[in-house]
Amino acid sequence: MAFERKELLRGVFLNTVRETKFKASMISLRFVVPLTKETAAANALLFPVLLRGCERYPDIGSIRREEESIYDTGISDSVYKRGDNQILEVRMNLLDNQYAIDGMDIAGEATTLLEEVLFHPVTEDGVFRRDYVESEKKMLVDDIRAQVNDKRRYAAMRLVEEMFEGDPFSVSELGTVEDASAVSPAALWTRYQEVFSRARIEIFAVGNLNFEALASRFAQMFSAVSRGEPYALRTSVMRSARGTVKTVYEHQNITQGKLVLGFFTGHSASDGDYPVMQVLNTVYGAGVTSKLFLNVREKLSLCYYCSSAENGQKGYMTVSSGIEFANEKKAADEILLQLDNIKNGVLTEEEISDAKLALIDSVSRVEDSTGSILNWYFSCVMDGTLLTPEEKIERFRSVTADEIVRMARDIQLDTYYFLCGKEEKAK
Amino acid sequence: MNRPDIIEKTTDFGEKYYYARHKSGLDVYVIPKDFKTSFAMFSTKYGAIDNCFKLAGEEDFHEVPDGIAHYLEHKMFENEDGVDTFSRFAKYGANANAFTSGTMTSYLFSCTEHLRENLEILLDYVSKPYFTPENVEKERGIIGQEIRMYEDNPGSAIYYNLLEALYEKHQTRINVAGTIESIAKITPELLYDCYYTFYNFSNMTLCVSGRADMEMVLDVADRILPKREQKAIVRHYYEEKPEVCRKRIEAKFEVARPMFLIGVKDIDISPDGDARMKKKAQMGILVDMLFGSTSPFAIDVYESGLVNGFDAGFDHGRSSSMVYLEGETDDPEAVYAKFLSYLEENRKNGLSREDFERIQRASYASYLKMFDSTKLAQPFTYMIHDDCDPFDYGNAIRAVTFEEISALFDRLFHENYYAMSVVRPIEK
């Protein structure tokens, strides 16, 4: 797994990882832009609108048929947030040329299609077609509204909104209904120019591809835009909690309550000692040998799931659990007690070694899929910590109980969120 | 020791697997892959639909409460010495899990080290049931919360509602987790009865992908699996008529926009595995031609904005077969009307040969991409349990003809076979 990285143009990087064991390779383009309330919805619309039609394939049907013809090489788009940045991605999963029944150059055809889609959209009055923009806006608005459907994810999202109120990170990667509804074709066109000119663009090619050919192909592609001053991308790590815990109760017509607690850890993935936080989180609540699983679920039978997750970009941790409304206090008490236990050094060598082995196992398997290789090296270049999986494993091995206890003492509860039934009262 | 009874099978795209029948009756498959990750799946042909059964020679059928296969899966993690199964795996860095479906219960792990030790744990804990009144009682709270979680999940409700609309009696209707009421009836005795019926090794498979070799796997099976009598199981499933039971079913949830799930019931299921595999390959291509991302239907509902998140798929297995279409829309009846008129148009004008050829090639490409998965043993197991050879499926896709597709289209789509399940927002 040989990783190489070079800057093709100002702020446009090509990252390559050669790996020959896969039948399909991956090409991914990630556009990194600042996450702001004003631009989030328009940014989220960009790739969906581009995928509606280009000069050679002017409608979505002809684009999709072309994708299917290239051995089912769909161009999939996604948007998510990472720290105070919004990531806009297009990605293709390319069957290796050797499996083409008719000798097609799959990678070549797919790259040509990608270029068409990204650089030659169909236009009307010099901007995106109005009907395409309106139709994608409607779908985005529906997606934003549909966030309420999945209660577990909805509760997790609401916790972040409440906990990071006033901070860029509270902005949804999809934007708001109001902002999405307000985007005009001309405004989206301006966004398009700005994103292509100023985003940090991380191109990844993973698998068995001709990287030299891709480098010149992408350099030529992006030379069509005049690259301006790249965005200054920064993420503020939250280091201290507000003096009191913010408590939020939300009521819906549901049968199971969703409890989500937000804690500030004050530690960031760019810190050399962040592996300590990852071991801590695993001991505490990630997985089936964790304190939360063994106590809140197995010992007290309060829930089906109760788990923690750490976020190394913003320096926080969450715990979420689905419980009977009446068990709210019992569950919350136990969740906090288990954290206090770690702070007080109540943890065994066995717990620590189980957690390390789980983390080492998950890092060891990075090389087994193009997607996980992509995510690994993307995190490395974003966090500025270029490590191989082997180097990361060594860091996990060296974590000690003392370090875990010390770091646990930095963790403070900040926000308490409970999604509960219509009749429930705050306790 | 060289085992003469190991069968090797290869493909023309560089894959191979080994098969052997272990003396316990267990079917063992090993798929070597050059991955750090190994993945093992130990499965029984037993799921939520098997609620009425007897052993060959027994007089009466046993009828058991809904949700018991899933409850049993949870309880297998309990051990007599009190050591938790997950913590046994944790010592060797494995990531373990289990799941239950309508037709199967699977116990699995993946790991990057210590495959042999982890395999020993897997075979050991699944072959040693330990149910007591106390540990069975303890699980009721946990599974109760799992059921409640799904009760708030519109995606789960819309699916089970559709099954109720499609099927009058057949056990496919049964919710895998059961209900709060049905799981209240589960006892250690019932769990043991189900266990000793369905967890006999001739009703099970072990499938390992990754850096595994068959000799080692058989060696572990030799050492760990207890001697157990092989039993023939008689299962009773209710007969179904071809027509759906109800045309519409609705529920209300806290959702933003109505959701629909249209189902096409199909009771034409061959008892022969090869015949099912052929039909499955045909159905895959046909459903993609009619409702896949490049179909006129999918493009139309997308461009008109009628449906958001449209998806279509199918299921064709030993016990049930259906085509489904789903998405979010303000007007489910308009989608349904479009579905009817679209099929009518296709009936009149015939299917497109050009679409067929493009989609057949795309289906073959997506079949090949499956072999990049570190969890290859999972789709492999599904096919094995359905009596298909996974290595033959690619050729089955390539062998499908346009004429077969057209004939299947005529058989599959009739208005009496359609039902629609709808979830609407609660009016505030």
Q: How would you briefly describe this protein structure?
A:
The complex is a heterodimer of chains A (427) and B (428). Chain A contains 15 helices and 13 strands.
How much of the residues of chain A is beta strand, in percent? 15-25%
Shape of chain A: globular
Mean pLDDT of chain B: 95
Total count of strands of chain A: 13
Write a structural description:
The complex is a heterodimer of chains A (427) and B (428). Chain A is of the alpha+beta class and 427 residues long. Chain A has 2 domains: 2-222, Metalloenzyme, LuxS/M16 peptidase-like (Cytochrome Bc1 Complex, Chain A, domain 1, 2-Layer Sandwich), CATH 3.30.830.10; 246-420, Cytochrome Bc1 Complex, Chain A, domain 1, CATH 3.30.830. Chain A has 15 helices and 13 strands. In chain A, the strands form 3 sheets. Chain A has a 6-stranded mixed beta sheet with strand order 1-2-8-3-5-4, with helices on both faces. In chain A, strands 9-13-10-12-11 form a 5-stranded mixed beta sheet, sandwiched between helices. In chain A, strand 11 and strand 12 form a beta hairpin. The longest helix of chain A has 16 residues, at 130-145. In chain A, 50% of the residues are buried. The mean pLDDT of chain A is 94. Chain B is an alpha+beta fold and 428 residues long. Chain B folds into 2 domains: 7-235, Metalloenzyme, LuxS/M16 peptidase-like (Cytochrome Bc1 Complex, Chain A, domain 1, 2-Layer Sandwich); 248-425, Metalloenzyme, LuxS/M16 peptidase-like (Cytochrome Bc1 Complex, Chain A, domain 1, 2-Layer Sandwich). Helix content of chain B is 40%, strand content 21%. Chain B has 15 helices and 15 strands. In chain B, the strands form 3 sheets. Chain B has a 7-stranded mixed beta sheet with strand order 1-2-3-9-4-8-7, sandwiched between helices. In chain B, a hairpin with a 4-residue loop joins strand 13 and strand 14 (321-328). In chain B, helix 12 runs antiparallel to helix 14 (393-399). The model of chain B has no long low-confidence stretch (mean pLDDT 95).
